Amino acid sequence: MRIGIAYDLKRDQTLREHAPDDALEEYDSEDTIEAIAAALRAAGHAVLRLGGGRAFVERVLAASAGRSEIDLVFNIAEGRGSRSREAHIPAVCELLGLRITHSDPQTLAICLDKALTKRIAASHGIATPSFCVISTLAELATAPLPPLPVVVKPNDEGSSIGIRDGALCTTAAQVGDQVEALLRDYHGAVLVEAFLPGAEVTAAVLGNGRAVRVAALMEIAPSAQCDEPFLYSLKAKRNYLEAVRYHQPPRLPRATLAAIEHTALRAYHALGCRDLARIDLRLDAGGGPGLIEINPIPGLNPTIGDLPLACARAGLAYEQLIAGIVADASQRSAPAT
């Protein structure tokens, strides 16, 4: 097939004045794009680099005008400018009738909003930590905060953006300081979420329909025993070689792993995910899994992406992962005969 890759490179973005140093954390590196392209070529596909934003639209239209039709768009574009930014490229593809990997615009727009994701999950009976959303500092005085301790983070960001050392709060004063800083620095709503004290596990979910499966579960833990609760913060991710240990399979009882898989699959279906998603969960004080968030465009760097790392440790090589995404998307979007 002739496959175009939709993406947004970190180096191509422009920081606004006084932006925090993690403002571009979600955007991809050249290494990631080349790794995907190499895996696609290894599977026998022709590859076009389409980029994102206006450049994507221009290149797609130029390819069509030149009778070089694109058979499939491999989408890892993050978009820019709003909480629906991850839906921009898929919406354009729907408009132009292009087949595309990953979830549709509606699912992508919903899942970037952590609170909306949690509300939909809860409506399906899926456990998720209690929370509230604060849009202005004035709301803080009357907001129905969950019981302490809580995690305070941007509601409409990914890649641990805004989740720093002070994100885990044990006092009301700390909550106020964190909310004020996030409202000021990230210009979006803030999620205040009850902290679940158990293990953190990420689930790599692949496929569509009855073929959906949990390809791997991976526990994310601190590298050394410490008295402080572990939070997979921005600092931990940036310093993962020293600060983090990844356990695949997780060091948990079989019944707990089964419960985590069940919760991840229910969340995947409830939010309408397609082809793949990374689903993050933590265990509560009783050992039950609670949904933290869903990432339907998970990072696909072969060496630092949590989903590829979990899959590789479970025996699914990177080239197989990428080929499987293409196969699932192609089968899903193939015209009826």
Protein traits:
20% strand; 337 residues; Dna Ligase, domain 1; 3 domains; Rossmann fold; alpha+beta
- The largest sheet has its strands arranged as 10-9-8-11-12
Low-confidence stretches: none
Q: How far apart lie the N and C ends?
A: 19 Å
In the CATH hierarchy, the architecture of the largest domain is 2-Layer Sandwich
Strand content: 15-25%
How would the global form be characterised?
globular
The CATH superfamily of the largest domain is: ATP-grasp fold, B domain
Task: Describe this structure as you would to a colleague.
This protein has 337 residues and is an alpha+beta fold. It has three domains: 2-102, 3-Layer(aba) Sandwich (Rossmann fold); 130-194, 2-Layer Sandwich (Dna Ligase, domain 1); 200-333, D-amino Acid Aminotransferase, Chain A, domain 1 (2-Layer Sandwich), CATH 3.30.470. It is 35% helix and 20% strand. It contains eleven helices and twelve strands. The protein has helices at residues 30-42, 53-65, 88-96, 105-112, 114-123, 172-186, 234-238, 240-243, 254-270, 306-313, 318-333, and strands at residues 2-6, 46-51, 72-75, 131-134, 150-154, 168-169, 190-194, 200-206, 213-222, 244-247, 276-283, 289-295. The strands form three sheets. A five-stranded antiparallel β-sheet has the order 10-9-8-11-12, with helices on both faces. Strand 11 and strand 12 (289-295) form a beta hairpin. Helix 1 (30-42) packs across helix 11. The chain is globular and about 60 Å long. The mean pLDDT is 94.
